[in-house]
Inverse folding.
């Protein structure tokens, strides 16, 4: 079983990403279940704006990510929080995944069916539930199944500020929730492998 | 297998509900798969505001709905659209379902795990995607799994107006999508019955 | 100048409402500017579901609130947070305000034009920005103007829990923001009194 | 008086942009009121991801837009609809505007205060209300005032499809609403010029 995590931080490597740190808690719990995991930081790649799977201009690196998404059973969408909303980086990736809507296997089953989606959010301010709802909405539109409680988040209390996941002592709930998310993603991915969704009725 | 549909129209019976009409397209497709279906119009009942499963005042009828939700494998949340948002009736039901968050079976599995949630929206104006995202967010928070493409909707084009699902000729996409939603809800409910989610790690 | 605050807590009086406590910080700052203020706890009244200003059944108390909203220059929408979303109580009030959409004065100016809307959110968990965005969206749809930074909120850090605004030591940012919201509401209400919106072009 | 419109289409020039066409209806109505208007297609520029006003890497063209936003009295945010959500292009611009949060004039008044924000959405599917709510939420967070009914949109009926604003016969409501938005933006911008917001209380 394979998992692909897309980190939508606005900061390219090697800057520290709190979102990446929390995503790795989920991925570590998946690795304990023998899931092969890969994490991509979107800001490190050249991804053109668009809504198709193919390259839309020279140098567009979306096709590499598209191939990895096709091969994955579990896709994790991770974002920082700005104005209580997901980042433009993760939005761009979701827009490109729109191309999957019309891609089916030889039996007419949409490519995203029988994949599951999970969600990770960090922020210095309120907004995690909404970020999850936005990423999830795109995911189940494309055909991903969203397992119950397949997300985790960290933020601080009211108002903006400097505090961050990596420097906080207050991460126990967040990390426990991350491990529960990993378990639920793994179980539902297995459930769909055993009892798969079929082509939609016409 | 059992399905429970909650219709959040603001209009009590016997007023015509477009939301109910479209919900019945999903339920009919579930019945073809031998699912036992029940539809409740929330505006016909006395449901007190609150976030617990027990009655919060004399005459509060939520406990009846709670019992039916516990017995269901598939729960469908249906709403009209006001200001592009779900109705206060379906919101009230989702708030009461919050009580399920802390309810587990004898093995410590949350009661909503291994149930799936689907969504139906009608409106005379734009807003269906957002209504779905709001209802879905509450559902997967409680522990319901949201299958890929487990929703349908109908609205008219730009601006408010009189046109409605029941009187429209333009319902083919909406009804086909409703039948696909039913198939996906049924398949994922079966998948979880065969390969169930277990208690979250502590 | 008059302000009306609608508190969408799910708890009837005399239960303590954190949302009410924070709303009063905004109202106190308005009173310092000689604004006459009234706060209504929606859960204390019988408000029928619907989208019109008139009573929809015997005992429906919406018309009283509608009259007060018509007389107000500033309307504050206040809600607790459930699943990161506004409560069914405040949603119901916003649905009823929909009736204002078609009400105009003798010059054809929609009744909500030249009124301003502000927002207050409390919660034991993340969701304030989204609650504000939902209430604001309904308000500017109806015709209210939303001044910059005309909101405040309080919640705790990650995960659900018991901590509440009234018992927290961490309220300085929240209360300062509340006073700024009051100032901005007051200034923009005055600006619109001096330079009012006129009837929309046909 | 000056207006700046930011078009968040994913398509670079010279591709046809429905969003641009509808935005121009608003701008034309502003020009009739002697407002000097400029429209920028974000996809034509190199805008680096980030949350500051200054260039974050060589070639980053955000500072040019930032300067124009500072000079504008009216800013219009325009987006196509993908999955019922605003585009990554307009999201990126809003993230960069976050830098304005900490910028004040010599009197301590935040730079966005006394500017107004309007919204334009086009789509081949449902989602306009939600797109408006997302862009507006960022705008009033930064300090822009959002006048009542300062938006317009166009989409088609249920389901995705090819139909677009420019090729539709069904644009009357959309264009009338666009002209009303222009009037409301202009009036509230004038109201704030005459009765401006002042520095927030500390």
């Amino acid at each position: 079983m394979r998992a692909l995590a897309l980190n939508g931080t606005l900061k390219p490597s090697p800057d520290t990403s709190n979102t990446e740190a929390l995503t790795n808690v989920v991925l570590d719990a998946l690795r304990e279940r023998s899931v092969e995991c890969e994490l991509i930081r979107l800001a490190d790649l050249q991804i053109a704006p668009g809504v198709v799977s193919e390259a839309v201009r020279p140098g567009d690196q979306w096709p590499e990510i598209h191939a990895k998404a096709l091969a994955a059973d579990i896709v994790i969408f991770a974002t920082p929080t700005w104005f209580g909303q997901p980042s433009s980086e993760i939005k761009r990736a979701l827009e490109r995944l729109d191309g999957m809507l019309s891609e089916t296997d030889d039996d007419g089953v949409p490519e995203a069916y029988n994949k599951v989606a999970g969600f990770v959010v960090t922020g210095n301010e309120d907004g995690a539930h909404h970020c999850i709802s936005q990423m999830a909405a795109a995911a189940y539109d494309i055909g991903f199944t969203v397992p119950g409680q397949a997300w985790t988040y960290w933020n601080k209390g009211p108002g903006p500020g400097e505090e961050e996941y990596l420097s906080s002592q207050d991460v126990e709930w967040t990390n426990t929730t991350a491990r529960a998310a990993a378990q639920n993603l793994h179980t539902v991915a297995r459930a769909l492998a055993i009892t798969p969704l079929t082509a939609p009725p016409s």
About this structure: Chain A touches chain B at residues 110, 112-113, 129, 132-134, 136-137, 139-151, 176, 179-180, 183-184, 187-188, 190-192, 194-198, 200-202 (CB under 8 Å).
